[in-house]
Design goal:
CATH topology of the largest domain: UDP N-Acetylglucosamine Acyltransferase, domain 1
Number of domains: 2
Number of strands: 23
Strand order of the largest sheet: 5-8-11-14-17-20-22-23
Structural class: alpha/beta
Mean pLDDT: 94
Helix content: 10-25%
Order of helices and strands: EHEEHEHEEEEEEEEEEEEEEEEEEE
Strand content: 25-35%
CATH superfamily of the largest domain: Hexapeptide repeat proteins
Length: 221
């Protein structure tokens, strides 16, 4: 496992969780890169640098893009690639339990107290927040995001760039489409098509119109 990591993007309030995971793993933050004019939310700003101040030494450390919203994470990854940071870090909090037969893609972050059961496949640049329970034979696509306390039982498929809100419960075998959103606390017992929103106890499933960021914790970007 790498001993150094670059945090590429520091404006999300979730950045503190990334810092805490690095601390628990004994990882050194080689650089915490501020990519725009927005204020940073780092707890420890000792490694803070501007994008234009990246050096070759910084580029040798694998990076991760801290953000909850998939579109923001895509932006950060594209910027990191353009800046020459080719290596992706996979960051799994040591308080989480991951089955030996499961696989987690590059650039993915698994926050504290999550359980991932056997034969599950998690894609690249996925965000999994605290205390998620992910069952066996689950497939989670690239750039998907899971809020705190999400329950995903066996044989569920979560599409690329989908968002599952805090405390949502998916029933076994359902398919969450590409770019779909499951609202916080929703119980999903049927497939959610690509680009649709599932909300409420029913749930109600309807097309997403306009910028989906306004639906998925814009202050958590």
């Amino acid at each position: 496992m790498t001993e150094r990591i670059t945090l590429f993007g520091v404006r999300t309030p979730l950045i503190g969780d990334y810092e805490e995971t690095c601390l628990r793993l004994g990882l050194t933050v080689a650089a915490a890169v501020q990519v725009d004019a927005n204020r940073h939310r780092l707890i420890d700003a000792a490694a803070l640098i501007r994008l234009e101040d990246l050096t070759e030494a910084h580029r040798t450390a694998p990076f991760i893009a801290p953000a909850f919203v998939p579109a923001r994470r895509r932006e950060l990854v594209a910027m990191a690639d353009a800046a020459g940071l080719a290596a992706r870090a996979t960051l799994v909090d040591p308080t989480s339990v991951v089955a030996s037969t499961s696989r987690i893609g590059p650039g993915t972050y698994v926050n504290a107290m999550t359980v991932i059961a056997s034969a599950t496949r998690i894609g690249a640049h996925v965000f999994i927040n605290r205390a998620c329970n992910i069952g066996h034979h689950v497939l989670i696509g690239d750039f998907a995001s899971l809020g705190p306390g999400v329950t995903i039982p066996s044989s569920v498929r979560v599409g690329e760039g989908a968002v599952i809100g805090a405390g949502a419960v998916l029933l076994p075998g359902v398919v969450i489409g590409t770019g779909a959103i499951v609202s916080a606390g929703t119980r999903v017992h049927a497939d959610v098509p690509d680009g649709h929103l599932a909300i409420g106890a029913g749930p109600t499933i309807k097309p997403i119109r306009g910028d989906s960021r306004i639906l998925i914790y814009p202050d958590q970007e």
